Amino acid sequence: MRILLVEDEPEMASVLRTALGQRDMVIDHVGTLAEGEEAITTGVHGAVLLDRNLPDGDGLDLLPRIRVRKLAAPVIILSARGDIEERVQGLDTGADDYLAKPFVIDELLARMRAVLRRSPELAPDLLRLGRFEFDWRNRSASVGGSTLDLPRRELLVLESLLRRHGRAVQRATLEEAVYGFDDEIQSNALDMHISRLRRRLSNAGAELEIHGIRGIGYLLKPGA
Questions:
Q1: Where are the domains of the chain?
Q2: Which of 144, 22, 121, 112 is nearest to 71 (CA)?
């Protein structure tokens, strides 16, 4: 999953990028309200983590701009302004959750799971395709009850394909799910991830096939 982090404190941003990156998430970090507004125009993020005290204004000012674009990404406010009045203001303005600093990473992850469960894309919690299962809550794959370990980028590719299984997924959509703003993308990088993912699924007996569709992208569907 690709996350937009709007945070101007370098130390806090570094901690969050490391912690979330270790959970197989792609983090796009910006440090100002203006950069955050530009970032949301891409529409590629699964969630937004938003600070309030930004150099060019209150992070809450970004919420109406997110909603007017009808973006589905849930927004969690992360702020040192944690008084009850501040939290109520944030939730009334349109935030999906509000977490006061300092906080524990495990609590942030739990709150992210909670707001993401409300997304229709992620319901139900468990997707079954023959012998293959994917647990959206824990972001884990298994075949016949045995865990399928996948490198981060292959897992991100698989998630994107699973959300649209049975439908063609454009290359651009897959690249947006896998790579952040700062990543350098080689021309054949996505194809390499797809090739390795195909091999892992086949070796595990997942009975899933990833078909390349010329000029469009890829399609995942149950195999024979």
A1: 2-120, 124-222
A2: 121
